[in-house]
Hints:
The chain is an alpha+beta fold.
Amino acid sequence: MIEQASSFARLFRGSRELEYATFKKSGRLKLGAKGARVPIESADYLLEGDDARLEVRVDCGITTPQAPQNTGSQDVIVFDPGRFYRGIGHFVRLAQGQRLFLDTRDEEVLSLFPEFSKGPRRKVEVYHDGKSLVFRESAPEAQTYLSLQNQDERKAEFDVRRIEALDLFTEILGGPPECLSADSAMQQLVEVQALLDNEPRRLADKNGAPGAVVKLRRKQTVVVAGDLHGNVDNLLTLLSWSGLAQSLMNNEAVLVILGDAVHPDSGPDLGDMDESVLMMDLVFCLKLRFPSNVYYLLGNHDSFSSEVTKLGVPQGLLWSKRLVELRGDAYRERLANIYASLPLIVYSPVFCACHAGPPQGKLDMEMMLNARQFPHLVHELTWTRQRVPGRPEGYTKKHARRFRKALGLSKKTPFIVGHYPRDENGCIWQDTGGIDGHHVVYSSNRAAIGAFVQYGERMLPQVVRGEPLTQWLIQRTKGKVVAGS
C-alpha cells in the first residue's frame, strides 16, 4: 500500500511541473489522472467520495502544536475520521519520498477504510515530495474530491483525544509518571505476583498452575508493542494514540508488550537504569489496573543475568545493582520471581507472538504450556534469532510453521516477534526472511514507534511518531501546562 519513490518515479515524472491547485468556491476539487498538487504545511485535507471521507493531515504532536517550518519534511497521516475517533482507530503514515496507493479492492485498504471502499472502485494515489502532496484518481468512473479543512480546528479536535488519554493515565497512576517509593514499589510487586499466580487467559500447565501460554479472545482489539527498552515516552505515546487508554478502560482492547521493557538499547549511556525503573512501575500499574487487558511477555532483557549485555555493557548486572541501591535486595529477589512467572507466548485465532522466535526442536502444545520445565524452550523463545546467510543457527520457515501448528493455527496466521530490529531507523519489518506473515516489531525507536493493531481478522502495522511526553505530562499534572499547549 505504501511504496518508496524509486519504485514509482515514472508515475510522478510530471508531478513537479504541476502548479499548486486552487480550490473553487465549493471548497472541493475533483481529482483526476493529471493530479493535483497542494502544500503540506498550509492546511489539512479531506479525501471524499460519496458519503465516505478520509482525513489527510500533518503529524504535529501535542507537545509541538506548531512545527517550525525550517525543521525539514513533515510526515503526513491518513485516516478515517469516523473510525479514528471511535474505539481504536488506525492511520497510515506517509513520509517524504513515499507514495500511498489506495485501491479500494485491495484487502488491506478494505480492512482499514471500509466506508471509503464502498461504491465504485477507487484508485487514489498520494505522493509526498517533501513540500507538497500530489493527489491522483486513476479510476475514470470514480468521483473523488479533495477539500480543504480548517487546520487549527481539526488539530484541536485531533489532540483532545490524546490529552484525555494521558489525563486518564494520570488518574490510573494516582499522580504524574514518577517512580514509586521503595515501600510502594514492594507492595506493587506483591500484588503483581498474586495476580500472575492466577492470571486471566493463562492456560494451565500439567500441575494446574498458570502455564507459559496466554490465549486471547477473537473479538477484543489487540495492540502488540515490541521492545520498549526503558523508553517511557514511547509507552505514553502508544497509550495516547488511537484511543488505546480509553479502549482499555472500556474492556475493548488488549495491550501485549513483547518483553524487553527495560535496559536502554541506544543512546550515550547504556548503563543508566533509572528510566527502566519507572518503566517497570508503569507496566505493573497497567497490569494491576487491567489484569485481563494488559499482558507482558518475558524477554531476554527481563533478567539480572551477566549474559545480558549491550555493546559490552553488562546491563543485567547493572539492572540488579541499581534496583538494590534504590529498593533493596528483597525487591530485587521478588522481581526475579515475577520474571520467572511471566508468560512466554500469546495467541488468538488472529495472531501469535513471542519475544524472540520459535523453538527449533520438537514442539507441541503440551511442551509450550510446560515450557518452564524445558530451559531450552525458554531460552529459544526469548533469545533466538532468524537464520540469515553467514549465521547457520537460528529459526527458519519450517520452525515458524511448526510453531503455528502447535498452537492450532493456520500457516498464514500472522506471527509477530520483537527482539531483533533489522536496522537502526526502522520499527516494522513484514514477511521477514522470506517467511510469509512473519513480522518484527520494535517500539523503542524514538523517531518511529512500531506496533501491530488488530482490525477484524487482520493484524495491521502502525507507526507512531515519538514525543517527549513524560516531562510534558508531569508538568501538566502539576499545573504548569494547560490542555492543548
